[in-house]
């Protein structure tokens, strides 16, 4: 109790100090800008700060900001209990009240749904058609977001066990017949799976041809630097690899071989697919990059939609646009300067 | 046939998980034992190896390693492996088994049989040779080894003019090394034998008839000037002994395609020396074309012999040229292929057993498939891929 009081007092003094500084700074800024301090809005301040302290940081939260402390710190130091010392939250004495609140709510909902099902079953109605479970469409919060959620909103430190239990409970709940309120409750804790966001869903991607022996195949070109590769992928294969008539010994360095290996490992089709490639131009690394590009493009129809999204997000399907930089006049090479002389 | 079936059944699910309950529930004890040590045999005597043991490792006992292989035959890479794995074990592969099969059934009254091992670089020709050498040593053959014939071409040690023939060149230091090596390997076997004729090395020095062979060899080692001639004498003596059914001779030459190349040796005022102008080469060529009974020659063509830019070919006709093929014919060509799938798995089992592969992902089926892909079925590449794991 005493500790709380102490902290509240410190908090108040802090806020007062910050507000004073803020007001001072605001007046100075207004003076600099030539606007009357009463007419200055937050937008003016933001513009001024962006001009005075430019920063190229990507994270906008870590760029310099000038705000009233009430936007940053909580105004009132909320006591979680009343004057008599009785806590407001009914689960305050579990040291993680909000976490347990969510878990018990989910459990309560599960009980209700079970009772309903029993009721429906007892009436003798035939079972409904199979619905699409929410767990198929949604992915529950992974560990980091989970920890962040509790830390930032409720300043609670949650452990890994708790996260595991959370995931188990939510999947269990999502597999029952849900009402609208339950769906809304669950959607707080999940994000839709990447399969809903179809990055590339055109028909072109799924095109393949069938050759004389009835095997499906697809050829695609891959490019890197100045190397061009024509890659054909035959489905239902054994893992045969052929590059310009040779096996993988065509490449001598491990790095180049790993470039060819990578798309096959990602799509886990090492021993399920035959690859034949023809490469021209470029050097060893360029050729291996070209094969990688062609391979990943050629594998698309034989692979699930989720994997297609993964591939496109990983950047395997894009042409690597890095090219050798041109030499410039007044310099030795693209970046290298001539030797500096004092006179 | 039954043992073959067990082998196939046991290899697939259980070669990697040694103590699974699947194994214990299987009916025969032999099957379980095979499962546990699927990549190794206990039999270290190569004469007992048969096609049943194909794809398994066997260890060479330490004293044999010390005596036969340690000094001149093993490369630093193999010595390193020996130190690391605390043992020297070889994979039993088909070419070695074929050669040993032929050797067991050969009629030694016919003249010299010539085997020619060929294969891609780092495919395992040297290890098949070690296997066969171990077998021959267990049968008490006399081993005459030339660990790397291209040394005569490249390693620049003394060159001198030959006394007897003016056009040929001697390599005294190389011949001394050869003689030392021969003595160490075959000391116990040649103790009783004596020379049959006198050999004149120069006007003043000659060796008489009837002196023990070991003395002749040590004479060559101490008097390097005559070492090359001693080598020639030794080869003739061995031929005579073999013809009299007293010894069986195994000649191994690694890199025989260096016999038809230019050397890098230099002598004052002489511009280029071709390998055919070296006495050592001529002596060995004589031996290979001779009609000795009880003798077998094992040669290998290596693409290492060529320059760095010229190493793509590995077929003997391309490496040796027309001259070489004409010289060596008729020979028994034996191809040393790259690893098959079963051999790859057993090699990876061995590496895991010896703690060479330590990453846990590498021990899974997926990891193995990736390693297999990256290595391209090449034995040395497999070793290199597993280095960072």
Give the topology.
The complex is a heterodimer of chains A (343) and B (389).
Chain A: H1 2-33, H2 42-52, H3 69-72, H4 97-123, H5 134-137, E1 138-140, H6 143-154, H7 160-174, H8 180-187, E2 190-192, E3 209-210, E4 216-224, E5 227-234, E6 241-243, H9 254-266, E7 274-280, H10 284-298, H11 305-314
Parallel strand pairs in A: 6-7
Antiparallel strand pairs in A: 1-2, 3-4, 4-5, 5-7
Chain B: H1 2-14, H2 21-24, H3 29-36, E1 57-60, H4 62-69, H5 76-85, E2 88-91, H6 94-105, E3 113-118, H7 125-138, E4 142-146, H8 151-154, E5 160-161, E6 169-170, H9 172-186, E7 199-200, E8 206-207, H10 213-222, H11 227-243, E9 249-254, H12 279-289, E10 295-300, H13 316-328, E11 332-335, H14 341-353, H15 365-375, H16 379-385
Parallel strand pairs in B: 3-10, 3-11, 4-9, 9-10
Antiparallel strand pairs in B: 1-2, 5-6, 7-8
Helix pairs in contact in B: 1-3, 6-7, 9-10, 9-11, 10-11, 11-12, 15-16
Kindly report the greatest chain-chain contact and the residue count on each side.
A-B, 14 and 11 residues
Mean pLDDT metric of chain B: 80
Report the sheet with the most strands of chain B, covering strand number, pairing sense and barrel closure.
Answer: 5 strands, parallel
Unreliable spans of chain B are: 1-36
CATH architectural grouping of the largest domain in chain A: 2-Layer Sandwich
Summarize the helix and strand pattern of chain B as letters. Answer: HHHEHHEHEHEHEEHEEHHEHEHEHHH
**Order of helix and strand elements from N to C terminus of chain A:** HHHHHEHHHEEEEEHEHH
Instruction: Kindly state the number of beta strands of chain A.
Output: 7
What order do the strands of the largest sheet of chain B run in, or round the barrel if closed?
4-9-10-3-11
Q: Report how far the terminal alpha carbons of chain A are from each other.
A: 75 Å
Task: Give the count of structural domains of chain B.
Answer: 2
With helices defined by DSSP (H or I, 4 residues minimum), what is the helix count of chain A? 11
Number of E strands of chain B? 11
Task: Say what oligomer this is.
Answer: heterodimer
Query: What is the C-level CATH assignment of the largest domain in chain B?
Result: Alpha Beta
Main location (chain B): mitochondrion
InterPro entries (chain B): Ribosomal_mS29 (IPR019368), Ribosomal_mS29_met (IPR008092)
Pfam families (chain B): DAP3
GO molecular function, one term (chain B): structural constituent of ribosome
């Amino acid at each position: 109790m005493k500790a709380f009081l102490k902290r509240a007092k410190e908090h108040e003094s802090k806020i007062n100090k910050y507000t004073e500084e803020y007001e001072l700074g605001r007046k100075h800024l207004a003076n600099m800008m030539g606007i009357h301090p009463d007419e200055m809005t937050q937008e003016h301040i933001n513009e001024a700060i962006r001009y005075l302290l430019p920063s190229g940081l990507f994270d906008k939260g870590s760029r310099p900001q000038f705000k009233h402390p009430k936007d940053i710190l909580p105004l009132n130091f909320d006591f979680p209990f009343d004057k008599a010392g009785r806590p407001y939250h009914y689960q305050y004495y579990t040291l993680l009240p909000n976490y347990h609140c969510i878990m018990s709510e989910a459990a309560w909902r599960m009980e209700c749904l079970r009772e309903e099902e029993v009721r429906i079953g007892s009436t003798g109605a035939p079972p409904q058609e199979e619905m699409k479970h929410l767990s198929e469409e949604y992915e529950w919060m992974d560990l980091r977001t989970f920890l962040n959620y509790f830390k930032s909103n409720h300043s609670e430190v949650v452990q890994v066990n708790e996260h595991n239990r959370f995931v188990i409970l939510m999947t269990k709940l999502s597999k029952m017949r849900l009402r609208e309120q339950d769906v809304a409750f669950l959607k707080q804790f999940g994000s839709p799976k990447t399969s809903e966001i179809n990055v590339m869903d055109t028909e072109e991607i799924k095109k393949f041809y069938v050759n004389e022996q009835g095997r499906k195949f697809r050829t695609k070109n891959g490019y890197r630097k100045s190397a061009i590769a024509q890659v054909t992928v035959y489905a239902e294969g054994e893992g045969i690899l052929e590059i310009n008539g040779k096996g993988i010994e065509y490449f001598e360095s491990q790095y180049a071989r790993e470039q060819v290996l990578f798309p096959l490992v990602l799509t886990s089709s090492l021993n399920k697919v035959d690859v034949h490639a023809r490469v021209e131009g470029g050097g060893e690394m360029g050729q291996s990059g070209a094969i990688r590009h062609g391979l990943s493009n050629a594998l698309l129809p034989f692979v699930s939609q989720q994997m297609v999204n993964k591939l496109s997000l990983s950047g395997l399907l894009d042409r690597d646009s890095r090219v050798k930089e041109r030499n410039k006049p007044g310099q030795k090479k693209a970046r290298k300067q001539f030797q500096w002389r004092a006179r | 046939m039954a043992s073959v079936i067990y082998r196939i059944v046991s290899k697939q699910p259980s070669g990697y998980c040694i103590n699974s309950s699947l194994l214990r529930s299987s009916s025969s004890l032999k099957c379980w034992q095979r499962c546990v040590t699927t990549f190794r045999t206990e039999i270290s005597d190569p004469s007992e190896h048969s096609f049943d043991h194909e794809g398994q490792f066997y260890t060479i006992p330490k004293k044999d390693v010390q005596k036969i292989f340690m000094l001149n035959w093993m490369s630093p890479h193999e010595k390193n492996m020996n130190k690391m794995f605390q043992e020297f074990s070889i994979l039993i592969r088909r070419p070695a088994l074929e050669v040993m099969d032929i050797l067991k059934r050969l009629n030694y009254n016919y003249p010299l049989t010539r085997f020619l091992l060929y294969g891609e670089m780092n495919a395992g020709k040297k290890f098949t040779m070690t296997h066969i050498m171990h077998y021959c040593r267990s049968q008490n053959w006399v081993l005459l080894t030339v660990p790397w014939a291209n040394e005569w071409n490249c390693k620049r040690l003394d060159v001198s003019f030959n006394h007897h023939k003016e056009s040929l060149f001697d390599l005294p230091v190389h011949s001394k090394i050869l003689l030392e090596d021969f003595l160490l390997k075959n000391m116990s076997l040649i103790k009783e034998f004596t020379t049959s004729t006198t050999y004149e090395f120069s006007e003043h020095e000659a060796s008489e008839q009837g002196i023990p062979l070991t003395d002749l060899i040590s004479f060559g080692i101490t008097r390097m000037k005559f070492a090359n001639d001693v080598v020639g004498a030794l080869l003739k003596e061995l031929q005579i002994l073999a013809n009299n059914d007293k010894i069986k001779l195994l000649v191994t030459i690694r890199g025989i395609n260096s016999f038809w190349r230019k050397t890098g040796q230099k002598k004052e005022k002489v511009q280029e020396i071709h390998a055919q102008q070296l006495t050592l080469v001529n002596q060995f060529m004589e031996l290979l074309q001779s009609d000795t009974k009880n003798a077998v020659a094992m040669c290998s063509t290596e693409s290492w012999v060529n320059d760095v830019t010229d190493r793509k070919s590995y077929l003997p006709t391309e490496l040796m040229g027309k001259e070489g093929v004409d010289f060596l014919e008729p020979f028994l060509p034996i191809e040393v292929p790259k690893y098959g799938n079963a051999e790859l798995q057993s090699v990876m089992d061995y590496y895991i057993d010896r703690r060479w592969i330590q990453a846990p992902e590498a021990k899974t089926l997926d990891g193995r498939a990736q390693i297999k892909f990256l290595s391209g079925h090449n034995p040395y590449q497999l070793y290199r891929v597993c280095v960072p794991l």
